[in-house]
Write a structure and sequence with these properties.
By secondary structure, the chain is mainly α. The protein has 2 helices and no strands.
Length: 87
């Protein structure tokens, strides 16, 4: 006898570990774009914060620590945002 249902087995969505892996990849792809966008623009803007710190001088340990922390954030932002808007 034939199955009167118009649906075939191929049209049903799979359930199991295969869907979990694709969901994780989709979540990563969803986060990747905005993270690269934000990192790219942070890397563009942070050098404008460095200039006043350098003009003030790095004699004060707090200013030196702030400058080095911002420099580290800038390097990290450059690394994360380097692939933004490349197809």
């Amino acid at each position: 006898m034939t199955n009167p249902s118009p649906l075939t087995n191929e049209s049903l969505t799979p359930s199991g570990p295969e869907t979990d892996q694709s969901d994780g990849r989709t979540l990563l792809e969803t986060i990747k774009g905005p993270a690269q966008f934000l990192s790219f623009w942070i890397a563009i803007a942070l050098p404008f914060v460095h200039v006043p710190l350098l003009a003030q001088g790095l004699g004060d340990p707090a200013v030196t620590l702030t400058f080095l922390a911002l420099l580290g954030v800038n390097v990290l932002a450059l690394y994360v945002g380097h692939g933004y808007n490349q197809h």
